[in-house]
């Protein structure tokens, strides 16, 4: 299948819906609509052959390859700028191609907490969402079924749920047991992690077999990725065109008319449709709108508010690790089995929400160490034995608030392989997030000390980095002057255009975003259907 | 610790050899020897590759492991099924042999173990960063040294040497991460 494209990548006539972007957001919308409507999906990247996944896994392990190489990142196609105080490593934070960034993702999926929908009212900072948890709740349940989530109802801090997870949770790891003793002494609750990863066979896909390279590639297909819904949409009749980057959206005053896309042989085509769903993620979606400026929309399409690209947020990472004087059995699998949300809802104006993660892959992976060591034979084995075996590590995700001076814009001085100005991720982080990182570090240190660990590394406010969750850039709201999309993700300015991405999030909370993206995508799909 | 042909199959399954996995392993099971393959041909070039790889593994692997010959041959056979990769392996082995002949007067596999070790270090393969398109040192690191280290340490037997029976790259199931130390 790889490399082939239907009808020479020509547009489909009489299309009802054109979806731009084949990550989970676009794939879920396409799947929901494909049975009843003519759906076309355009994606900038290629369709990857599933048979190549082991080779990609080898790239993940071998030092000759950088992370973006695993999924064929291309420096010219993916050129970007980062003019903010903090560099933003955009190409480590996404994948272009059928399946989108879920090809690379970790696959931890939780619901936002109830207070996350009302940060302004409950925590005294940031905007409230225009919808509350209750409105999203049934879509969360549906999203968990679609992605296939293994989880357990053992998190006392999670929002209420109405039904069990589709699959049982993965059992805790050996090292979780070590942490559990320390946490009990400190009265910190640990609980399972919902994973979009099969703990048993699900939906025709294999159970996890423990390759341990989940991020950036699962050769078994046990980790959910959006090729699942792309293939399902195709089986219902959708047309999916790969290597078809949309250059701009042609429009009138209140409707999008066509998506103009390029193909590998240099031809440009126009895909017309009744409805357009832009699902290019939280960076490329605002970029496409800004590239589609016109006389009527001189600041970018759907940008009467002036907010397209504004309020860029990511989650920040805080981490601490060390070594024990006993074996800790790390690096068998590439996913997490325990977290703590105990401190999450203490959030206020001073300290943001954060969640704590207990690693199953603390310390080096012996095979990776071996491939970059400067020795071999006995020496190497001695070194591997010294390096591996006693590490423990903890992570945390921390919320950052939306700020006007954190944004995605266009860099007029730099163009991509099609001559379009590249996205400039101007990322700025405020003091509340930095204080929260410090707080997370304190809790991590307390747990590791209780565990008897010698602390050997820490990622704190000075060297924190992003978790690769792009939020805020096409904010959702009811007031067209204060937001870009309405609560069903339809643009205020154009009646037939939806922006289905985490760009819609008014605030980010501190849980990984994709389950919420999926829930909002299912909700938006319903609105698209009603409009047709 | 004994390396087996099953370990070779496991190492191949970890790093991928496409259709060649089944082919290579069946074929090895069929005759189990270094003799001619099913087509009745055993081109000297292929035999030379195998010898060189086994000779290199004797340097690169710790003395605790035995059964290197069968393991390396099984692994290599699968890897040669990937055409571009196989070309890279052949070129790197050719370069290694050229150096062996001009510096030590004999091809790599014919040298004493200590000389093989010395030669690999003199080439710079110990400190080089692997690069499939790089200098001789970087290509020998990529196609010979790291090829063999990857085979060993992504296999369960190699992992066990370090205390990790389900190393990264090996589909060793979802039990081992829960078990405590032996
Ligand atoms: C390393 C890593 C780990 C992660 N771990 C987690 C995790 O554990 N849990 C979690 O919830 N999230 C995680 N994420 C984030 C998650 O991957 C994203 O939230 C999710 O994939 C976003 O879905 P999306 O469909 O909006 O965008 P994407 O998945 O990014 O897909 C967008 C698609 O749009 C296409 N596109 C872009 N521009 C154009 C254009 N102009 N024309 C046509 N197509 C275009 C791209 O090619 C791409 O295929 C992780 C991300 C990374 C990188
Ligand atoms: S450990 Fe990760 S990579 Fe391996 S099968 Fe499970 S989900 Fe896939």
Give the arrangement of secondary structure elements:
The complex is a heterodimer of chains A (532) and B (182).
Chain A: E1 17-20, H1 24-34, E2 39-42, H2 53-61, H3 67-70, H4 119-123, H5 133-147, E3 150-151, E4 167-168, H6 174-185, E5 191-192, H7 227-235, E6 239-241, E7 246-251, E8 256-262, E9 268-272, E10 275-278, H8 281-291, E11 316-323, E12 338-340, E13 354-358, H9 366-372, H10 377-387, E14 391-398, E15 407-415, E16 421-426, H11 431-450, E17 454-459, E18 497-499, H12 514-531
Parallel strand pairs in A: 1-2, 1-10, 2-6, 3-4, 10-18
Antiparallel strand pairs in A: 5-12, 7-8, 8-9, 11-14, 11-17, 12-13, 13-14, 15-16
Helix pairs in contact in A: 1-7, 1-12, 5-12
Chain B: H1 5-15, H2 20-31, H3 44-60, H4 68-79, H5 83-104, H6 113-123, H7 136-153, H8 156-162
Helix pairs in contact in B: 1-4, 1-7, 2-4, 3-4, 3-6, 3-7, 5-6, 5-7
Could you walk me through the main structural features you see in this protein, from its secondary elements to its overall organization?
The complex is a heterodimer of chains A (532) and B (182). Chain A has 532 residues and is α/β, with parallel strands linked by helices. Chain A has 2 domains: 15-69 and 95-113 and 132-149 and 216-315 and 400-410 and 471-532, FAD/NAD(P)-binding domain (3-Layer(bba) Sandwich); 150-193 and 316-398 and 430-463, Cholesterol Oxidase, domain 2 (2-Layer Sandwich), CATH 3.30.410. Helix content of chain A is 25%, strand content 16%. In chain A, β8 and β9 form a beta hairpin. In chain A, α1 runs parallel beside α12. The two termini of chain A are 32 Å apart. Chain B has one domain (5-21, 40-164). Chain B is built from 8 helices and no strands. Chain B has helices at residues 5-15, 20-31, 44-60, 68-79, 83-104, 113-123, 136-153, 156-162. The longest helix of chain B is centred in the middle third of the chain and has 22 residues, at 83-104. The radius of gyration of chain B is 16 Å and the shape is globular. Chain B starts with a helix and ends in a 20-residue tail after the last helix. Residues 20-26, 42-45, 93-94, 96-97, 100-102, 104-109, 215, 245-246, 279-281, 284, 288, 468-469, 501-502, 512-514, 517 of chain A line the site of flavin-adenine dinucleotide.
């Amino acid at each position: 299948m790889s490399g082939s494209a239907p009808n020479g990548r020509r547009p489909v006539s009489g299309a009802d819906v054109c979806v731009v972007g084949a990550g989970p957001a676009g794939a879920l919308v396409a799947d929901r609509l494909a049975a009843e409507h003519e759906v076309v999906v355009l994606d900038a990247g290629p369709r990857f052959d599933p048979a190549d996944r082991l080779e990609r896994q080898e790239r993940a392990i071998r030092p000759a390859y950088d992370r973006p190489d695993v999924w064929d990142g291309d420096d010219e196609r993916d050129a970007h700028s980062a003019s903010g105080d903090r560099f933003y490593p955009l190409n480590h934070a996404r994948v272009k191609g059928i399946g989108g960034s879920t090809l690379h993702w970790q696959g931890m999926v939780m619901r936002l907490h109830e207070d996350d929908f009302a940060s302004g009212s409950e925590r005294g900072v940031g905007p409230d969402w225009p919808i509350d948890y209750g409105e999203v709740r049934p879509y969360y349940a549906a999203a968990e079924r679609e992605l296939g989530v293994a989880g357990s109802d053992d998190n006392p801090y999670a929002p209420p749920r109405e039904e069990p997870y589709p699959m049982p949770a993965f059992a805790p790891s050996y090292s979780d047991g070590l942490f559990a003793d320390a946490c009990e002494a400190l009265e910190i609750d640990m609980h399972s992690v919902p994973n979009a990863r099969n703990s048993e066979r699900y939906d025709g896909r294999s159970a996890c077999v423990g390759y341990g390279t989940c991020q950036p590639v699962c050769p078994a297909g046990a980790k959910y990725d959006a090729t699942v819904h792309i293939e399902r949409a195709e089986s219902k009749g959708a047309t999916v065109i790969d290597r078809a980057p949309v250059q701009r959206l042609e429009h009138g005053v209140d409707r999008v008319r066509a998506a103009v896309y390029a193909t590998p042989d240099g031809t440009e085509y126009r895909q017309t449709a009744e409805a357009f769903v832009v699902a290019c993620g939280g960076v490329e979606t605002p970029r496409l709108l800004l590239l589609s400026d016109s006389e009527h929309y001189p600041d970018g399409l759907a940008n009467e508010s002036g907010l397209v690209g504004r309020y860029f947020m990511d989650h920040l990472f805080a981490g601490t690790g060390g070594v024990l004087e006993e074996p800790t059995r790390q690096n068998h699998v590439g996913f997490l089995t325990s977290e703590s949300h105990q401190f999450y809802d203490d959030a206020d104006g001073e300290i943001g929400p954060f969640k704590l993660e207990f690693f199953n892959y603390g310390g080096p992976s012996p095979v990776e160490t071996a491939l970059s060591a400067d020795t071999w034979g006995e020496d190497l084995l001695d070194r591997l034995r010294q390096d591996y075996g006693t590490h423990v590590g903890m992570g945390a995700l921390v919320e950052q608030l939306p700020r006007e001076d954190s944004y995605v814009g266009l860099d007029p001085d730099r163009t991509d392989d099609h001559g379009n100005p590249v996205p400039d991720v101007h990322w700025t982080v405020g003091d509340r997030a930095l204080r929260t990182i410090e707080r997370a570090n304190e809790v991590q240190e307390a747990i590791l000390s209780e565990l008897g660990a010698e602390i050997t590394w820490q990622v704190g406010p000075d060297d924190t980095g992003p978790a690769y969750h792009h939020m805020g850039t096409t904010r959702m709201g009811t007031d067209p002057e204060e937001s870009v999309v309405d609560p069903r993700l339809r643009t205020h300015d154009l009646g037939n255009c939806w922006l289905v991405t985490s760009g819609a999030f008014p605030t980010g909370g501190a849980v990984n975003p994709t389950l919420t993206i999926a829930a909002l995508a299912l909700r938006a799909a319903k609105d698209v259907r009603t409009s047709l | 610790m004994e390396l087996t042909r099953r370990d070779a199959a496991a190492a191949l399954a970890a790093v991928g050899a496409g259709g060649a996995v089944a082919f290579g392993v069946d074929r090895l099971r069929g005759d189990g020897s270094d003799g001619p393959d099913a087509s009745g041909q055993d081109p000297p070039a292929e035999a030379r590759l195998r010898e060189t790889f086994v000779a290199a593994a004797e340097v690169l692997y710790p003395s605790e492991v035995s059964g290197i010959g069968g393991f390396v041959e099984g692994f290599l056979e699968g890897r040669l099924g990937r055409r571009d990769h196989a070309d890279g392996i052949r070129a790197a082995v050719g370069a290694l042999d050229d150096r062996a002949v001009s510096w030590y007067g004999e091809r790599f596999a014919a040298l004493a173990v200590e000389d093989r070790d010395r030669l690999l270090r003199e080439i710079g393969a110990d400190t080089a960063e692997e690069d499939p398109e790089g200098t001789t040192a970087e290509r020998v690191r990529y196609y010979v040294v790291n090829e063999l280290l990857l085979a060993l340490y992504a296999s369960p037997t190699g992992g066990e040497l370090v205390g990790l029976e389900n190393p990264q790259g090996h589909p060793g199931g979802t039990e081992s991460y829960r078990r405590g130390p032996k």
